Amino acid sequence: MLxxxxxxxxxxxxxxxxxxxxxLTAWAAVPILSEAERLTEDLVSETSDVPFxxxxxHQGDSLQIxxxxxxxxxxxxxxxxQAVTDWGVSFDGALRTRWARLRLPxxxxxxxxxxxxxxxxxxxxxxxxxxxxDASDLLAGTxxxxxxxxxxxxxxxxxxxxxxxxxxxxxxxxxxxxxxLWHADEFQIDDLRGELAEVTIPSAENLTPMPxxxxxxxxxxxxxVARGRSLGVMCLGRSxxxxxxxxxxxxxxxxxxxxxxxxxRLYAQQADANRALQRSLLPPGTPAETPGxxxxxxxEPAGENxxxxxxxxxxxxxxxxxxxxAIGDVCGTGPQAAAVTGLARHTLRLLAREGYDxxxxxxxxxxxxxxxxxxxxxxxxxxxxxxxxxxxxxxxxISAGHPEALRLRPSGAVEAVVTSQSLLGVFPEAExxxxxxxxxxxxxxxGVTDGVTERRSGDRLLDxxxxxAGLLAExxxxxxxAVAERIRRAVQDFAIEPSADDLAILVLRAx
Length: 511
Known about the structure:
Keywords: Hydrolase
Helix content: 25-40%
Oligomer: single chain
GO molecular function, one term: phosphatase activity
Structural class: alpha+beta
Pfam family, one: SpoIIE
Domain PPM-type phosphatase: 293-510
InterPro entries: Bact_Sigma-Reg, GAF, GAF-like_dom_sf, PPM-type-like_dom_sf, PPM-type_phosphatase-like_dom
């Protein structure tokens, strides 16, 4: 059995499909991979907007997928569109499980043993080089540190051993801890876990395979060491002695597995650091009370948390009935862009609260960016001040090379309301002049980054021929939150491919 948990949302389906590919590759079931992917898509598409689990079970001559979720509504259940040998739905309290079974080609109903695979090795010879290559590809494609031990065990059993236990370093320097255990006979896993609990597992600091005394099993512990770092131990067991060639093969696989574990560990650390840095570049919060102003912000970084983006936004109070806002885009990604993003957001807040007007703030920010020298990055920015009046909202704003800000009237009319001026970080002598805009009750101001306007589908951009203005015109009489969500969804639906650029949306509505 191999299981994984998934959050709801637009990334759920591609992540579930990737998990299915990993499972079937590990189980050498690639001939039915396309059927399994379609079945996964079929079952996942029926889930509600709640987190769910996917469980794959190897049943000898077939594979069974189970999609488990907490039932949120009672709906008719239809059979999968993909041809399956059997399917059904079961309930356990509030947990609903939809399951289906795919037959393996040439299945006999009997699970292969380690000795079966050893026999195949002597007859196939070089075929094991393909096994190692496939195992390396599978492990290299997994960047989740918690998934790697499970994949190691699934790759090993039953090819090299009857069971496999993967241990990782214990917390605070304690003994190794069992991360994943797999047995060719699933019903023996619990008993084996109890036996292993009574055994002393050698540390990964021993750089050569070591025997383990475990009942009638012939067991070997292989260290998982990569780049001089001890990452755990891979323990294998079988009913007969380990042939020298099988032990050498397992030792080779252990080195590849350790490298995959270290790569996943480093990737996870970098991703965590990037997420922390990204959070630090966003405002700590937005005003809780904004009488006369209805607002909404949307921010979605692109990619898989492996890069820090350059988009940012802010909205903060500068006094009773006055606020400042900003939405900007730093050229590039990564630490260099993050440095300019942090400089911009903190400078805007500091100078605004010191009483500088909008033009003075933008001019000083331009000089501050240029003073960064080689670390400087171009920055487009829409920055403004909002002042509540008896007849709505008065805005003073500057667009420094930023996509144009649009005003939506309750009648559905849309117009650009700000003059584009020099982007920041280019000309030291640049001067800026604020435009003044009035929002009457019901009027909406929309500001976006180029992740919206330059969303691409083939040769067409979302904002071609006034596409963004057309979308906004359909949002008359909607709340600020509804407008922001309508634009975000339109960007998502504009193309099949995930967006390669960060996205930020700021909506201000006078009430």
